[in-house]
Amino acid sequence: MMVEIETSAIDYEIRAMFRTVIDKTEGHHPSFRKALHIAANSALGGKLLRPRLFLDLYEVLADPDDKFRYDGVESPVKEIAAAIEVLHFAFLLHDDVIDGDFIRRGRPNFISRLAQQSKISTDDHHDAERKEWARSSAILIGDLLLAEVHQIFARLDLPHAKRLQLLDLLDHAITDSIIGEFMDVSLSKGLISPQLADVQQMSRLKTATYTFELPLCSAAIMAGYDPQKSAEFATLGGLLGLLFQFQDDFLSAFGNQAEHGKDELSDVREGKETLIIAYARKTAAWPLIQPYFGNANLNKENIREIKELLVTCGAQSFLEDTIAHTARLCRDQILRITAFSPAEVPVLLNALVDSLEGRRS
Amino acid sequence: MMVEIETSAIDYEIRAMFRTVIDKTEGHHPSFRKALHIAANSALGGKLLRPRLFLDLYEVLADPDDKFRYDGVESPVKEIAAAIEVLHFAFLLHDDVIDGDFIRRGRPNFISRLAQQSKISTDDHHDAERKEWARSSAILIGDLLLAEVHQIFARLDLPHAKRLQLLDLLDHAITDSIIGEFMDVSLSKGLISPQLADVQQMSRLKTATYTFELPLCSAAIMAGYDPQKSAEFATLGGLLGLLFQFQDDFLSAFGNQAEHGKDELSDVREGKETLIIAYARKTAAWPLIQPYFGNANLNKENIREIKELLVTCGAQSFLEDTIAHTARLCRDQILRITAFSPAEVPVLLNALVDSLEGRRS
Which cofactors does the annotated protein need, by name (chains A, B) (predicted)? Predict the structure, then answer.
């Protein structure tokens, strides 16, 4: 039977991880401790996709007699779940610095909140300076959290070989994400020319490995599956990551703004090299779209025109087909996993594919 | 007998560490691999103070029959030495992003070199954009190196308890450095008021722990010293860090520019809250110095005037006295260590105090 992991239980673990970090700064300057508290609050309130996926899969994969319990007592499973979410948050901190963003999940991000809450008085008008300082703080707190994630993996009370497997996985996830983010920045600054293959690889690297491969394979390793079987989960992770990213691109262009919480056509405004743009570039519609690409100030009329161009040039249906095709590849891979897993595993994983394919936010 | 560790041997290990990182990016976009090569070249050419201190001390502390060999074969000692230097380099990358610096050790830093070498053509005039991209790259490569340092400590082929001791030490060094850098930024942006105690604590946190405590204690732990004895090295590390920082402040104000490679009065130009400034603030000379504080464009006459004010207000002799006093505290602590160490240890450590006290660059 699939066990629904409570959000509050994961939140509790994330809080505990921040508590550990804050305790280490005992006696140090209160402004740093305050910044950490703001970071903890910013880290909470997400969808917890990654730790949830890890815990749900672990729950159905692990032998009931051999399972790490995560109610009440300390367990490596709980710690890994929190570390996976905090790794995601640390990446967001550095991404927001790099992209100059102040909004995340539809609300002020850490940088924005820290800058606001550090106002010395109501007639303090050094907004730009405080934002710059808050960005520096986001670099430093991201570093501290990245270090803490490693400390958790490095200290797991497991046989050394198993710890090394998990460390390999963490290393792989971090390396991929960093290369992906580097390519993303390089593409948007024009330092890599926007080839479709590069755009797709960037998307996969930046998100898929740490969002899907890391939780899925960590669950398989913790449940005692051998490297060959864990590798099947890695393959699925890569496909799920693509599905997630394509759906993201689709929502940015054609989704309901109220549901996904970003500006309409935010990717176009930011000049972001998505799959939809890579396709549109090769069509006759591109010269008409290009003037708007990277233009932050689009009016309603511009938006209507761009959307229509993306439909008529075939980019919309191309992306829909790609999403459907990728979802099929995911289901095929789940079949392969079914061969060696308990019956609840394909149920859980197919439900995940359904939710990714149909998500609206 | 004290063994002089060759610079080339340490350089070799640092290169090997970068080689490992670069190998992990095999098949990925060449521009990222190129950036890593530039990072490797930027990381080399330093004074190697930290790994040298670690290796020199390990060499005289360790029981000859029980020593890890680091000629030829893989040894945790070699790996730790490289990781200590690469940690330093990762901090420099993020510090340079935070401070907006393009010069390091008197030559173009990683950011500056990457921006320059990524010029697509000679008539590429997007200098500001390329610098911004290079700063983003410095954040990402700093993250990757920080992760690699943790991987090295986490994977050391040592008894788990010993590995945990080293992980504690790494954690402590990173936490202190990050809090110190946070305080430094907060002081220079005026978000923490410049109290002498905070300025001193900032200096200690930012540099002392990872520069002295980490190498000294790592050597003690690797040589098999118990936590109580290792703690005596930690105390010495804190004092050496203060000595180093005070000497740095002194050189910035009164040193020979040609020898230390920074602009004359660079700390004053940058509005940096050093011990010398904290002292001067409490004197009658401050209203005369303040107009120049944080002013990047000082002429020869300004510089002459500020230096004279720092002498007449007593800041110079206060700093000289503080340096001499701190050096004495270091020598007292070395006496304590002498009680339980081989005879070469105080020789090595006292020579270090002499060189820090008398350094000109």
Answer: Mg(2+)
